[in-house]
Amino acid sequence: MNMLDIIKKASLGAVSNTNPVAFSYGMVTAADPLQIQVDQRFILSGPALVLPESVLESAIELEGRQIIVRRGLAPGDRVLLLRMQGGQSYIVLDRLVVS
C-alpha cells in the first residue's frame, strides 16, 4: 500500500466517523414556538431548527381578502430533517405526506 492509499483510507475513515449529515424523521408537537420531536427521543426548537421557505406559511391579499397559498407547519405534521455535522442544528427539509 503506497502513501496516497494510506492517506485516502485515513481521510475516508475520519469522515465516516464524524457523521457529516444524517436524515431523521420528526413530528411537530407545537407550532408557536415551533417544536419538533425527533425519532421519539428528544425535542428541537429555536436556533436548532433551520427552516426553508417551503415549510413557512405563505399568504397573499386578493380583493381585500387574505388567501393562504401554503400553510405552515402544524402540530401532528411529520417532517424530514437533515442533521448538520456536529448535531447542533437540523434543517427541516419538508413536510411528509401519508400515501
Detailed description of the structure:
The model has no long low-confidence stretch (mean pLDDT 87). It contains one helix and eight strands; from the N terminus they run αββββββββ. The longest helix has 16 residues, at 3-18. The protein has one helix spanning 3-18; strands at residues 22-31, 34-38, 42-45, 49-50, 58-62, 65-70, 78-83, 90-96. A hairpin with a 2-residue loop joins β5 (58-62) and β6 (65-70). It is α+β, with helices and mostly antiparallel strands and 99 residues long. Strands 3-2-1-7-8-4 form a six-stranded mixed sheet, with no helix packed on it. Strands 5-6 form a two-stranded antiparallel sheet. The chain has a single domain, classed as Beta Barrel (OB fold (Dihydrolipoamide Acetyltransferase, E2P)), CATH 2.40.50.140.
